[in-house]
Specification:
Shape: globular
CATH architecture: 3-Layer(aba) Sandwich
Number of strands: 5
Structural class: alpha/beta
CATH superfamily: Response regulator
Strand content: 15-25%
Organism: Caulobacter rhizosphaerae
Protein name: Two-component system cell cycle response regulator CpdR
Number of domains: 1
Distance between the termini: 15 Å
Largest sheet: 5 strands, parallel
Order of helices and strands: EHEHEHEHEH
Number of helices: 5
Keywords: Phosphoprotein
Strand order of the largest sheet: 2-1-3-4-5
InterPro entries: Bact_response_regulator (IPR050595), CheY-like_superfamily (IPR011006), Sig_transdc_resp-reg_receiver (IPR001789)
């Protein structure tokens, strides 16, 4: 079972994402912000799924720290800001994927499954 570290500051969205991924068979640890997610980086993960824009530490910085600890970690960003999504590609670790909100839960699960199979 693949292990996913989820960082999303919107409480309801975090819950929806975590439940959808758990129903699809993934083990999910959900964090309310970047600082909380970074506290979990010593644990091995298969995927970091993080919002980009969060108060405090943003998702890009979480991803950089995660990739520095585990260069093989798969990284996926979700964001509701198109301009942020475009600039994230330049600042994110290589190979990271960006999904724009709103994202349908089926589409998210499908993209996660594709990343896990790659």
């Amino acid at each position: 079972m693949a292990r996913i570290l989820l960082a999303e500051d919107d409480d309801s969205l975090r819950g929806f994402l975590a439940r959808a991924l758990e129903r699809a068979g993934f083990e999910v640890t959900a964090c309310a912000d970047g600082e909380e997610a970074v506290q979990h980086l010593d644990t091995p993960w298969d995927l970091l799924l993080t919002d980009i824009v969060m108060p405090g530490m943003d998702g890009i910085e979480v991803a950089r720290q995660a990739a520095a600890r585990d260069p093989s970690l798969r990284i996926m960003f979700i964001t509701g800001f198109a301009a942020v999504a475009l600039s994230a590609q330049d600042r994110a670790p290589a190979g990271a994927k960006v999904l724009s909100k709103p994202v349908h839960l089926r589409d998210l699960v499908s993209e996660v499954e594709k990343m896990m199979a790659a």
